[in-house]
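Marked as duplicate of an earlier ticket. Keeping the data here for the record.
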Amino acid sequence: MKKVVNPLLEKQPKQFGIGGALPPKKDVHMFVRWPPVVQIQRKRRILMQRLKVPPALKQFTKTLDKNLGISFVVCIAFFVIICGLLCIIIRV
């Protein structure tokens, strides 16, 4: 048995010509004009991937964030105080 199909509800291919359906959206990510800051960030990242940097310089590329930096300075200050007290005690 063949199904009876209503000709008004029959599937027709989309027509993307003038006056037809809108074409599907394309990815225009590469054609966007990005702000200069973003361009510089991307270029720097590509450069860092391509260049071979000696370890002595590489250590300065990854710095501490603000919270970790503050806790580090507090910790170092504590040890500086203790070291100062020890020096005073040793001299006496």
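See parent ticket for discussion. The chain has a mean pLDDT of 85.
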